[in-house]
């Protein structure tokens, strides 16, 4: 088994043990809502970042690699709905996984390979767990024998289509800024660590905090 496979198996085994507890059996896949799971990912990311201090020119990337913006504006975050936050985190993390994969392809130093393999395996595991937390399977509605069969909607010819004037070219939103780029492995691992500690952790607070039921006053 190669280093990447061994590192990935180690991460998954650890997560399953955390899920099962000290004496119980794991009753499903590990959940990021267990704070110990996310703390493990963050700790490994920070250890990898610290391990690259003083790496020097060995960590220079031959080309710039796009990364997500790890910064968080809390006022802007509060204005976003949960769906927008989910898209920001999943999209940013996908860019991060691609950046780590590209760094593995660009850097051939055998001393850097174990760190890159470990970070890439952990990033893929985190992507899988994130999808499980923020995209739960939608239950298929069951029909009873007495449930009426829904009829497809067909618009009537008498319903006129409202006229919408063409949009002015000046009203189009500005294009999004280009993603930031890094040229060193040290900076890439710093972005990776900051992204987990920032946007990913904030999203988990949103999706893992139980919503209190409404209180009925007498």
Automatic annotation (TrEMBL):
GO BP term, example: erythrocyte maturation
Cellular component aspect of the GO annotation: extracellular region
Listed InterPro entries: 4_helix_cytokine-like_core (IPR009079), EPO_TPO (IPR001323), Erythroptn (IPR003013)
Protein's UniProt keywords contain Cell inner membrane: no
Signal peptide (UniProt feature, chain positions): 1-23
Disordered: annotated segments: 133-183
Entry similarity comment: Belongs to the EPO/TPO family.
Protein name per Swiss-Prot or TrEMBL: Erythropoietin
Gene: EPO
